[in-house]
Specification:
The protein contains 5 helices and 7 strands, in the order H-H-E-H-E-E-H-E-E-H-E-E. The chain is α+β, with helices and mostly antiparallel strands.
């Protein structure tokens, strides 16, 4: 009488193994697809400045007497700077994927944002609303990069207003960067954090970005045990909200 029961249990376990193998295969295929897409997108981004640089140099070689050297050098350096930015961003993404290894230290978010804004030369003045004592344990250079990326993004898309806010929120540290541009449509509010994301012309990399800034910002947030999301600002634009665990105040 035990044989049918034992057979039933074996079949049940076999079904579970088959289902697990199918799930694993699906995940591997998805990972491969993502790798292929990443390679294709990265190649496209790298090819564009390389092609521009090659065209300029070949034109100068064919018509040396008609080449304005200062202008050629300016264009060539701009393409090289773009290449360097893409390569540095890709290396940072790889570093973040492998885990943050730099030692974290207490960081005052309000002081970080105030210092950054004071050092920037933005077309639109950044309005500050900064609470004191919002401290997190973090890698300073990475959180500074996250903040810079969000401020750069806001400046590219704002019409008249950019705001930066730091405060306590539900037991977490919160940084919010807001602009009064066209905002991000609800269906795109996750996709905008994907590498080389292509949205509409109002918020794409042709306006100064290369499609990696927000992906890097999201990965930095996650590496610090936090979150980064975007929603609609009260003024109708985009509001990027970073939340991080507060630093342990330690013994009293």
């Amino acid at each position: 009488m035990e044989c049918p029961t034992h057979l039933h249990d074996c079949l049940y376990e076999l079904d579970r193994v088959v289902a697990l193998l199918k799930s694993t295969r699906s995940e591997l295929e998805q990972a491969r697809d993502q790798q292929r897409q990443f390679a294709a997108d990265a190649s496209h981004e790298l090819r564009t400045p390389v092609t521009g640089l090659r065209t300029q140099l070949e034109e100068a070689q064919l018509h040396p007497g008609e080449t304005a050297l200062p202008e050629l050098l300016d264009h060539a350096l701009a393409d090289i700077n773009r290449l360097q930015q893409i390569i540095n961003d890709l290396l940072l993404l790889v570093h973040l994927e492998s885990g943050v290894t730099t030692e974290e230290e207490p960081l005052d978010l309000a002081e970080l944002v105030r210092t950054q804004v004071d050092q920037r030369q933005d077309a639109i003045e950044v309005k500050l609303r900064l609470d004191r004592g919002v401290t997190v344990n973090a890698v300073h250079s990475l959180i500074a990069r996250l903040s810079t990326n969000l401020l750069d993004n806001a400046q590219r898309h704002a019409t008249h207003t950019v705001e930066a806010e730091v405060c306590h929120h539900d037991g977490s540290a919160q940084m919010a960067i807001t602009d009064d541009g066209q905002g991000v449509a609800a269906p795109d509010r996750e996709r905008i954090f994907e590498m080389f994301s292509r949205l509409d012309t109002a918020r794409d990399r042709d306006r100064g970005g290369i499609g990696l800034g927000l992906a890097i910002a999201r990965d930095i947030a996650v590496a610090h045990g936090g979150t980064l999301v975007v929603d609609q600002a009260p003024c109708g634009g985009a509001r990027f909200v970073l939340r991080l665990p507060l630093a342990d105040p330690g013994p009293a």
